[in-house]
Amino acid sequence: xxxxxxxxxxxxxxxxxxxxxxxxxxxxxxxxxxxxxxxxxxxxxxxxxxxxxxxxxxxxxxxxxxxxxxxxxxxxxxxxxxxxxxxxxxxxxxxxxxxxxxxxxxxxxxxxxxxxxxxxxxxxxxxxxxxxxxxxxxxxxxxxxxxxxxxxxxxxxxxxxxxxxxxxxxxxxxxxxxxxxxxxxxxxxxxxxxxxxxxxxxxxxxxxxxxxxxxxxxxxxxxxxxxxxxxxxxxxxxxxxxxxxxxxxxxxxxxxxxxxxxxxxxxxxxxxxxxxxxxxxxxxxxxxxxxxxxxxxxxxxxxxxxxxxxxxxxxxxxxxxxxxxxxxxxxxxx
Length: 334
Prior knowledge:
Elements: H1 2-14, H2 22-29, H3 37-52, E1 69-78, E2 88-97, E3 109-110, E4 121-132, H4 140-166, H5 174-183, E5 190-194, H6 197-203, H7 213-228, E6 233-236, H8 254-262, E7 264-265, E8 276-279, H9 295-302, E9 308-314, E10 320-326, E11 329-333
Helix pairs in contact: 1-3, 4-7
């Protein structure tokens, strides 16, 4: 047991730069209290594989990026199974070059192979996480929702910290930092990536709210993040190009290996599963009835023309009074 724990401790340090080993190390961690010889052999196998790949240039790359920049929050989850009684989530927060301005935010886009290149490219790994989920899930959809919310929390934290260094006045004010946390950073938007169509449709309002109360709240919180501007684009990607998939399962995944050997991330279409992206215009005020609308209804409401009527008059002492009617409301301006 002592030898197993010693090897496991060394592997945990190694996963700081070898993200492809995280899933195997997490599986071994769950056996610490009931370790057997088979688990020790499995740990030795992970060490052997890591040594064989020395010299292949695997690690973290920090190539020069050209502004404007964005954060890509890639999240995935694997449900419980026969060998594991809990869900495992994987999250990557990547700093990427922003080439998403070519897409209109008022429509859903099914991307061509050439357009998929805008979603990837050179990137810096700023946050990586692969571990047993801290919250109980009752379905694959629920597990994916929990991973999305965890990814949003991590992405928001990274965004605020970078904005404090790069985009805030010196010194940054407390009010400014709170506003960035609640409304997002305009100069450093967050794009969320998922391979779960069920969660994608829940977060965009295409599906009715889930029956489970906990999942319902998490879905609403993610929808609020989209309305407020904390999440700019929501991207549905094929599982084959889901980079975070390697953080949840013991596997050798091409997207993860490409990220660790070239410092680039790549998303691509499959024959029966195209990349789909969707966004919402930023809403200054979010009301309860907005959560009952899908994306198309929200965009339709926000695009309605604003009718303004102005009446100008003079009071008894000669001051000008202006009465403004806006959507049936009125205000006096002096």
